[in-house]
Amino acid sequence: MGLTATKTRAAAPxxxxxxxxxxxxxxxxAIERDQRLIEVATRxxxxxxxxATSLDAVAEAARVSKPTVYSRYGDKRGLFxxxxxxxxxxxxxxxxAAAETQLSSLADISVEQRLIEIGREMLTFTCGPDAVxxxxxxxxxxxxxxxxxxxxxxxxxxxxVATTARFFDHLVAQGALDVEDTTIAAEVFLDxxxxxxxxxxxxxxxxxxxxxxxxxxxxxxxxxxxxxxxxGRVQDAKGTQRRRPSR
Length: 247
Description:
This is TetR family transcriptional regulator. One of its GO terms (molecular function) is DNA-binding transcription factor activity. This protein has eleven helices and no strands. The protein has 247 residues and is mainly alpha-helical. The protein starts with a helix and ends in a 9-residue tail after the last helix. Helices cover 72% and strands 0% of the residues. The chain has two domains: 45 residues, Orthogonal Bundle (Arc Repressor Mutant, subunit A), CATH 1.10.10; 143 residues, Tetracycline Repressor, domain 2 (Orthogonal Bundle). Helix 3 crosses helix 4, helix 6 crosses helix 9 and helix 8 packs across helix 9. 33% of the residues are buried. The longest helix has 29 residues.
């Protein structure tokens, strides 16, 4: 959405919000209003960046009063935090879904293939244009607003690590992985599988999915070289990708 589209939407007549008997919007109307505010703010932050987006512009584009925006979010930092929290939840959803899918997948699927499926999902949502744009904004505002960086860490990175660690706990219980600390293993896995590609995308390097997936597969092989348990080695031997015999 560009500036022209934003102006066109801003010019539309303000929609009447259903009110309760006390004069306040109904609960349903308030939820719809907040969703509209977040949607509009998301597009404006992506189109204009953090510094060039004002609460007044968001209120106008969302067709709500300025006092409503200020009373709901306090300031632009509060609005950005709300937008970021929702975006992070959207990015984490595919990771959680992929982990759940692999937990319930057939036992004869190799550990390597399970991790490849998760890695592919991670590449798609962490290196997409919106995720990269928000990563840049969060990084640029982290010094001035440490709580924004804290939000990104706690709601994003730590939850991604926890989700991956729970998946690893399951594999350890099956004897498919042999790691002492699944949280550290999850941190290493996330960093080697998508960390480099995400950083390059943040720097503006064009993302080539074919090359990114090739790197992801190689990173997973390196990760598994020291992490496969006895059951994982037997399982992997049945697959198309065979481990080299130890010397």
